[in-house]
Amino acid sequence: MSDVKEFIDKLHHTHKAEWEATPKIQDSIDWLTNLFEFLFPNNRLHKKATYVGILKKNQIDLENILLSYLDPTEADIEGTVNAFYQSLETVYHHLRADAAKIYEFDPAATSIHEVIVSYPGFYAIAVYRIAHQLTLLKVPVLPRILSEYAHRNTGTDIHPAAKIGVPFMIDHSTGIVIGATAIIGNNVSIYQGVTLGALQVAKELAEVKRHPTVEDNVIIYARTTILGGKTVIGKNSIIGGSVFLTKSVAPNSHVFNTHQLRIEVKDEVFD
């Protein structure tokens, strides 16, 4: 019985330390949901007079989340919160540009608003841009909670530390992976099942660029895998579906899988 008590004591000590260093997940998700609803209202239209109050509450909620797990003597929580909300207009304009690009290239989309309220790819980009801004402000843990929430709900896994230009299009969303040190330029389109990953996974490579660079105006079609921190996809290139790349591609390249599909049609046989 003493062994059980000793185990419980150690478990409680570990849990307490980890709990104190982690924001409450549900509070974090609620904050994200309210912020997205403020930027892109769907369920109801806010009265103009209430916008300031709604934003102020969201700001207070973020401050309380940070205070719940960061030491205010070591982190400038007020400065971080103010800097985040000062960047919010820029984040919003970037997201409008993302939505417009998705609408422009998706023949199934009937309006930009439809993209905003119903496309998982847009939602994944929106959460990325919010989480990325927090990452730039050196906020720990919270950006990953937000990005993993989006991952769970959209099937798209974008590390908040990745650098992605504007506009950016994700089509169909499911199965996309973009690693922490990936760099994506402006006007890039990515389709389902694309991975921008590392050639190898090792802890000692944590500070090394492990993921590819994709330059401006590139299209990467479905189920393509591009690996390696030194791999660069040159601007204006098109990477076809089911391609596997570990080497750089020059600008203006078209890269396609050479596997051939053979189809035989047999004569119908009638009794």
Automatic annotation (TrEMBL):
CDD domains: LbH_SAT. It is an enzyme of class 2 (transferase). One of its GO terms (biological process) is amino acid biosynthetic process. Keywords: Acyltransferase, Amino-acid biosynthesis, Transferase. It comes from Runella defluvii. This is Serine O-acetyltransferase. InterPro entries: LbH_SAT (IPR045304), Ser_AcTrfase_N_sf (IPR042122), Trimer_LpxA-like_sf (IPR011004). Its EC number is 2.3.1.30. The keyword Iron-sulfur does not apply. SUPFAM superfamilies: Trimeric LpxA-like enzymes (SSF51161). GO terms for molecular function: serine O-acetyltransferase activity. The keyword Acyltransferase applies.
